[in-house]
Amino acid sequence: MDRTLRSVISFVALALFAPLAPSCASAPKKDTTLTLQEFERNAPPPDDPCVGQKGASLECTSQADCCKGYSCGKDPERNPRALYCLKE
Predict the structure, then answer these.
(1) What is the pLDDT of residues 29-57, one digit of tens each?
(2) At 1, is the pLDDT very low, low, confident or very high (cuts 50, 70, 90)?
(3) Are 60 and 75 in contact (CB under 8 A)?
(4) What SS3 string covers 63-84?
(5) What is the DSSP letter of 43?
């Protein structure tokens, strides 16, 4: 059998049997939409305006800069010159 005939037979076989092979495109897609309750349950908690990034206390200049339940003062573990809103 020469090379050209073999190529033609391979092409014809591929053209005939390729549509029969299962493909990912024809598989039914899973519905990934969430209900409102599922979304709210899986959503991250809202940012706390009284706490900075990574839970760090916010800097302040007076008590008016801090939220209720926080007081403006020095944090011994941080910059000794800055004032921070610390939980009471």
Answers:
(1) 777 787 888 888 887 776 777 888 777 88
(2) low
(3) no
(4) HHHCCCCEEEECCCCCCCCCEE
(5) S
32, 39, 86, 38: which is closest to 63 by C-alpha?
86
Nearest CA among 68, 71, 44 for reference residue 57: 71
| Residues 84 and 58 sit within 8 Å (Cβ to Cβ) | yes
Find the helix or strand (DSSP H, E) in which 39 lies.
Answer: helix 36-42
CB 83 within 8 A of CB 72: yes
CB 67 within 8 A of CB 52: no
DSSP at 49: T
Q: For residues 58 and 60, give the distance between their C-alpha atoms in angstroms, rounded to a whole number.
A: 6
- Distance, in Å, from the CA atom of 43 to the CA atom of 6, rounded to the nearest integer, reads 59
Tokens of 28: 């039914």
